[in-house]
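User: Please work through this fold.
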Amino acid sequence: MKTSGISWTVTCVESTESKSWPSSGVSRSGSVRQREGRTAKLRFLLARGRRGQKAGRIMKCLRVRVVGAVLVMLLGRPLPAADQPCWKAGTARANITPSQPLWMAGFGSRTKPAEGKEMDLWIKALALEDARGHRAIILSGDVLGFPQSIYQHTCAALKEKFALEPDQVLLAASHTHCGPVLRNALYDVYPLDAAQIGMIEKYSEDLEVKMVEVVGKAIARAGARAVGGWTRRRRVRR
């Protein structure tokens, strides 16, 4: 707003708009508004700071109480003696990378079998045994999934060799789309000829053998572990 004489600008805290005022009789009022605006802003910041400090004290108090409760629970637990039975655990793995060019399961845009290898595929086993001698096996493999036939054959072999029931065995697939097609799985998705089906059958049989072998190695390597306790007894394998 242009006026005669010198004009100047006052910016209020409450608004981002700038207004021009004539110099006569308004200079004092503008200074008062500036001081009031700065005072209001300072009060707001101080109030917010006090609220933040209060919230910080509350959070600190809660953290102290939570940490204290955890320490009480942990320190209140009895330490297991060295001669007390504890859990046993063992691991093993085997390379299951195909040696022949197989179709890759789940790789929908492929128009031909695999042409090489970027990295190896693995089958891994974890054998667990609790203090009562009850065992459980976790088998994880770099495959799209485990077909029913492989699951049934593997469970039957594990029961025969290690007296493991099916409810003691867990199969977990990484669900990679760069692993091979397995027996009786996705046969209708790819143009498989007799030669390819034969290689898939042979690979699936070898996979079942390796799954049983890694379970046996994991069980043999199982050493004493104190799961959830304070002590751990480890058998060092040299």
Remarks:
- Residues 18-75 form one domain.
- The first helix runs from residue 27 to 75.
- The first strand starts at residue 7 and ends at 11.
- The chain has three helices and seven strands.
